[in-house]
Amino acid sequence: MRILAFESSCDDSACAYLEIKDGQILRLEHVVASQEIHRKYGGVVPEVAAREHSATMPTVLDALAEKVVGRADGLALQEQVDRIAATAGPGLATSLRVGLDTARALAFAWDKPFHAINHIEGHVASSWLPNKEGESAIALAEDVFPALVLVVSGGHTELLYMRNYGEYTLLGSTRDDAAGEAFDKTAKLLGFGYPGGPEISARAKEGDATAYDFPRPMMHDTSHDFSFSGLKTAVRYFIRDNANKMDDAKFISDVSASVEQAIVEVLTKKTVRAAKGSDVKTVLLAGGVSANHKLRESLRTTLAAEASEITFVEPPLMYCTDNAAMIAMAAYFKSQHSDGDDRLTASVNPSWELGRA
Ligand code: KG4
Ligand code: ZN
Questions:
Q1: Ligand 1 centroid to 195 CA: how many Å?
Q2: Considering just the CA atoms, what is the radius of gyration of the chain in Å?
Q3: Could you read off the pLDDT of 126-146 as tens digits, one per residue?
Q4: Which of 154, 230, 252, 301 sits CB 3.0–4.6 Å from 180 for a disulfide?
C-alpha cells in the first residue's frame, strides 16, 4: 500500500508518501513548509494561512515528488501511488480546504481511492511512525489496545479511550484553553514569539520549576476534564505585578519553568489517574505539546512508578507537531477496513470531534 497524504489544517503545508508492505513500513518521505508570516501577528490569521497554503502546497508536492521519484513529475508520482488522503478536520475551514481539495482533485484525475482523515486521529497514528533512526516504538502488528490517549495540541486537550484503530470514546476535554494555548499565551505574556511552547520549554531548562507556585486547575477533580484559563490569568497578574523584572533572564527562566511544571503536573496526574482506573494496556501521547521533554519524562517516570504494567509510548519527536506523515499513517489504518470516502462529496469538517457520543 502506497499512500500520498496532505495536511493543511492550520499553518503548516505538508505532504507525505508512505509505503507499507506485509506489515512493515518500507518507505516514508515527508515535506513540510511552516508559515513564518504568522510570527509577526503573534498567532495564526486564518485568511493569511489559507492564502499561504494555496501558494505553497504545489511546491511542497513538487519537493515530495523529487524525493519519491527523483523529479517534480506528477505522472511519474501517479505510478507510485495507490491511495490519496488529506486532513478534513478539525482545523481552520479555509486552510483545510486547500489540502483536501488538492487531494480530491488528484484522486479524481489519477482515479485513486481517497480518505478524509481526522487531524487528531493523525496525531494518534504518529506513535506508529519511525523516529529519525528509522525505528518505530510500536510494530504495526503489535496489539496495544485498549489504549488511553492524552491529546495535547494547540487547539485540543483531551483524554480518549481507544478500543481499536478508529474506535474512540471521549473521556474528558478542556473546558476552556488547550494545553498548547496555555503555553502559547504564557509565552506571549513573556514576550516570546509564536508558537511559544518550544521557547517556554527551552527557557525552562535553565529555570527553577519550584520558584513560583502557579495554580494547577482541576488537578484534584476526579472528572477527566481540564481547564487552563485560570493558569493563564494567574500568570498575567503575576507578570503585571513583577513588570520591573522582565529584563531579568533568571526571572523569565524561572517563570517559564514554573508554568511548564504546573501544566505538566496537571496533565500527568489526570492521565495517570485515568489509566490506573481503567483496563488500558498502553498510554499514547498525541499532538504538538507531546514534543515537550518535561511532559514525556513526567509521564514516563510516574507511570513506571505507579502503573508499571502499562506501557507508555512516546511519539517520534519529528512527528509531534503538525505533519502529513501522521495523516498517511492514519489513512493506512483506515484503508484496512474501508475502500475510501466519496471524493466528489467529501468536505471539510472544521469541528470534527473524535469519540463524542
Ligand atoms: O499539534 P500542533 O502542531 O498543532 C495543532 O494541531 O494545534 O500543536 C501546536 C502546539 C502549539 O501550541 C505549540 O506551542 C505546542 O504545540 N508545542 C509545544 C512544544 N512544541 C510544540 N508545547 C510545549 N513544549 C514544546 N516543546
Ligand atoms: Zn495538530
A1: 7
A2: 20
A3: 999 999 999 999 999 999 999
A4: 154
